[in-house]
Amino acid sequence: MSNQELEELRSKLDEINLKLLELLNERAEIAQLIGHLKTKQGMVKFDPVREREMLNELVKHNRGPFDDNTVRHLFKQIFKASLELQEENKNKQLLV
Amino acid sequence: MSNQELEELRSKLDEINLKLLELLNERAEIAQLIGHLKTKQGMVKFDPVREREMLNELVKHNRGPFDDNTVRHLFKQIFKASLELQEENKNKQLLV
């Protein structure tokens, strides 16, 4: 009985994992487009002010159970991965 | 013109950020429920086999632009935060 409950919760987690993956990649695509635009305009990629604004907005909307510090930590990792993706693309362009 | 394009892309990112936040907290709630069940059944919280299975499933569905290592890294952070949340709740229960 309880094992069935556990299995049901786990399959919900699996569903959410895939939704998260999809959203993360969708986000990464948009970050890439922003990177291309910034390259064209000669703008720097890393914008600490914009990043802080995004984090503040996220914390403002955070209703838990993750606390604000965890939300900040997880999104900083996401921002960092997106920035690395933009840099990789820039390096690829330099190699062409 | 291009600044408008940048603003549009940024507002899409903001939307996705909030959706990610919502899904992350939804995921955290389910992880908490799993934690409670495991406590009741005297099971250990950290399950490396289950974690590896989830990561494999995510990598199998990854269509990029994030590469598989980045997907693994980001989800490991999410799993870790969820586990910490389960441990915090356990400590709170011990204090009551």
UniProtKB/TrEMBL annotation, chains A, B:
Residues 6-33 form a coiled coil. Residues 1-90 form the Chorismate mutase domain. This is 3-deoxy-D-arabinoheptulosonate-7-phosphate synthase /chorismate mutase. It comes from Tepidibacillus fermentans. The chain holds residues 1 to 96 of 359 of the full protein.
